[in-house]
């Protein structure tokens, strides 16, 4: 997901189109390793965001504003001194390096025109923003690198600027077939690794894409390719290079559901089964991708505590269930004791005094059985003892049967909350799940002091839940709603849906209630299939190839008294098998 040489080339192409001949009107440094340049060209104004952050180096055009520190850092003041109202002459990328050089013209203190370079290096932990003069002598940098930090290259004022060494990698823009064979096809490495370790600017993603376009994914290693396969790979590489040289870019993000997986400046055939979001601007792609990625990461981080609570509660419930099953199995002897008591009462007159057992015919099975006796007790007392054992085990069985149902319901409830947590995309989604966990005692509710209370009286903290169901529109124009949690499932099914609407749910596994608003119109087969795919996608079976889905009219769905949120029963339904998918559905959110 890092910016490779191809994406940098796309960024350079976009910046050339929008910024050349523009003037730098404002320079700010919101973070220690970030710059924002405001550039005006004619009537247009652009904000260029530059980041040398070790974990997230970036460069793109943005419309967002960032809060600046009260006192500008030294590097920012230096750039303001030299580059205020300076004109951008050129923007270029050396080879296919992850480096962008911005050539800038400005007036010095004497009023003479001077040339400077602002160089952005997007190289992971080695990322930097370097300010150089016309002779490529470093004026300063946002990160100063001394020989104590790097013995390979110093980045300090007064030192000559030189590009960081990329080893023995070849330039993809100039490499010939013979050179390609020597640097790539002779390596005893997996084909993808042979490509990105031999060619500058290639990321593992672009190497994978090249191999996929060449249909060589099954190749054991680069040096195992035949002459024809090697030539076919190079021809596909040339097509990719031609698109790059001619700036035939198609910026896009690949999504797995709501989660961004990868971005690129070229169409990714290796992800053809996932949803693709495209834009004309690579800047919009980068901004959208990292914004979406940060949202998903933040939600996952904030959901860690809830996931831990659910996991611990689930483990306790499962252990409890296993123990109750074991105890229930011990009650299997209850009917045997009842029969012993009945047979002793029936044949007790035949029992000799002091006998430790006696043989009797079990008239239920017509078999002869041996009944143990306590020789110190009379037959009547032995019968009474067996009936007492029977009644005790019977009471235990009845109590355990009820407890097992309750524990199983708890496990299913927790499993449904866990499934809802997996699909949470916003903080309000987490708030609804947190409220459910507190309501059923899985976590403690926070209390606040009552206003004006002198005795320290406490009141329940007010809950603010604004989470809304997912809303899609089918290919045939029908509105479909998906509950994100158990509360929403109940709300959709029993308050929002009408009797003639259709209800979908994954069979025997946790999942969302899906409501299709029919509005008195018969649903086409395609809408049934899309709604079933939606129910499969928002279920615990999302990772499976197929999921069995039950569907019925909403009027057939009932809520048992005292049932937990999201739990329903239905006795009239249809079923189908569907692949988990939201392809072809338009989000109405």
Automatic annotation (TrEMBL):
One Pfam family from the record: NFACT_N
Domain NFACT RNA-binding, first and last residues per copy: 468-562
GO terms (BP aspect): rescue of stalled ribosome
GO terms, molecular function: ribosomal large subunit binding; rRNA binding; tRNA binding
GO terms for cellular component: RQC complex
InterPro entries: NFACT_RNA-bd, RQC_Subunit_NEMF, RqcH_bacterial
Coiled coil residues, start to end: 383-417
Alphabetical keyword list: Coiled coil, Protein biosynthesis, RNA-binding, rRNA-binding, tRNA-binding
HAMAP family assigned to the protein according to its UniProt record, in alphabetical order: RqcH_B
Functional description taken from the UniProt entry: Key component of the ribosome quality control system (RQC), a ribosome-associated complex that mediates the extraction of incompletely synthesized nascent chains from stalled ribosomes and their subsequent degradation. RqcH recruits Ala-charged tRNA, and with RqcP directs the elongation of stalled nascent chains on 50S ribosomal subunits, leading to non-templated C-terminal alanine extensions (Ala tail). The Ala tail promotes nascent chain degradation. May add between 1 and at least 8 Ala residues. Binds to stalled 50S ribosomal subunits.
Subunit structure, interactors included: Associates with stalled 50S ribosomal subunits. Binds to RqcP.
Family: Belongs to the NEMF family.
Name of the featured protein: Rqc2 homolog RqcH
Organism: Anaerocolumna jejuensis DSM 15929
């Amino acid at each position: 997901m890092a910016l490779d040489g191809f994406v940098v080339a796309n960024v350079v192409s976009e910046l050339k189109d929008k910024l050349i001949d523009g003037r730098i009107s404002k320079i700010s440094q919101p973070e220690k390793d970030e710059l924002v340049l405001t550039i005006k060209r004619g009537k247009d104004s652009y904000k260029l965001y530059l980041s040398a952050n070790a974990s997230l180096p970036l460069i793109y055009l943005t419309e967002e504003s960032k809060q600046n520190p009260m006192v500008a850092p030294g590097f920012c003041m230096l750039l303001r001194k030299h580059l205020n109202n300076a004109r951008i002459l050129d923007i270029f990328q050396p080879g296919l390096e992850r480096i962008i050089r911005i050539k800038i013209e400005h007036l010095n203190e004497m009023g003479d025109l001077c040339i400077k370079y602002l160089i952005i290096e997007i190289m992971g932990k080695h990322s930097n923003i370097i300010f150089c003069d016309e002779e490529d002598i470093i004026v300063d940098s946002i990160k100063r690198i001394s020989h104590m930090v790097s013995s390979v290259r110093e980045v300090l004022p007064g030192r000559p600027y030189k590009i960081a060494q990329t080893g023995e990698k070849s330039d993809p823009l100039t490499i010939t077939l013979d050179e390609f064979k020597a640097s790539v096809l002779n390596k005893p490495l997996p084909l993808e690794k042979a490509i990105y370790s031999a060619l500058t600017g290639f990321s593992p993603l672009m190497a994978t894409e090249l191999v996929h376009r060449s249909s060589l994914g099954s190749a054991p290693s680069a040096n195992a390719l035949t002459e024809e396969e090697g030539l076919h790979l190079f021809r596909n590489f040339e097509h990719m290079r031609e698109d790059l040289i001619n700036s035939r870019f198609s910026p896009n993000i690949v999504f797995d559901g709501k989660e961004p997986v990868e971005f690129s400046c070229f169409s990714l055939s290796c992800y053809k089964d996932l949803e693709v979001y495209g834009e004309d601007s690579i800047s919009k792609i980068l901004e959208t991708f990292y914004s979406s990625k940060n949202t998903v990461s933040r939600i996952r981080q904030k959901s860690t505590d809830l996931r831990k609570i659910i996991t611990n509660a689930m483990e306790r419930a499962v252990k409890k269930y296993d123990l109750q099953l074991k105890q229930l199995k011990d009650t299997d002897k209850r009917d045997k004791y009842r029969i012993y008591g009945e047979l002793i009462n029936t044949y007790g007159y035949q029992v000799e005094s002091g006998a430790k057992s006696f043989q009797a015919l079990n008239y239920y099975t017509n078999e002869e059985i041996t009944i143990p006796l306590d020789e110190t007790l009379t037959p009547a007392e032995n019968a009474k003892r067996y009936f007492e054992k029977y009644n005790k085990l019977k009471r235990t069985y009845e109590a355990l049967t009820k407890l097992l149902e309750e524990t199983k319901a708890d496990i299913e409830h927790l499993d449904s909350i866990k499934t809802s947590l997996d699909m949470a995309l916003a903080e309000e989604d987490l708030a609804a799940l947190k409220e459910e966990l507190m309501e059923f005692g899985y976590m403690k509710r926070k209390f606040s002091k009552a206003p004006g209370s002198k005795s320290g009286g406490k009141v329940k903290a007010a809950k603010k839940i604004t989470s809304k169901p997912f809303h899609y529109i089918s290919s045939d124009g029908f509105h479909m709603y998906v509950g994100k949690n158990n509360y929403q499932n109940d709300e959709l099914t029993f308050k929002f849906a009408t009797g003639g609407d259709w209800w979908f749910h994954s069979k025997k596994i946790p999942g969302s209630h899906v409501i299709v608003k029919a509005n008195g119109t018969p649903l086409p087969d395609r809408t049934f299939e899309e709604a079933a795919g939606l129910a499969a996608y928002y279920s615990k079976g999302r990772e499976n190839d197929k999921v069995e889905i039950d569907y019925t009219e909403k009027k057939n769905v009932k809520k048992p008294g005292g049932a937990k949120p999201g739990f329903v029963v239905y006795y009239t339904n249809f079923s189908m098998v569907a692949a988990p998918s939201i392809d072809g559905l338009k989000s109405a959110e």
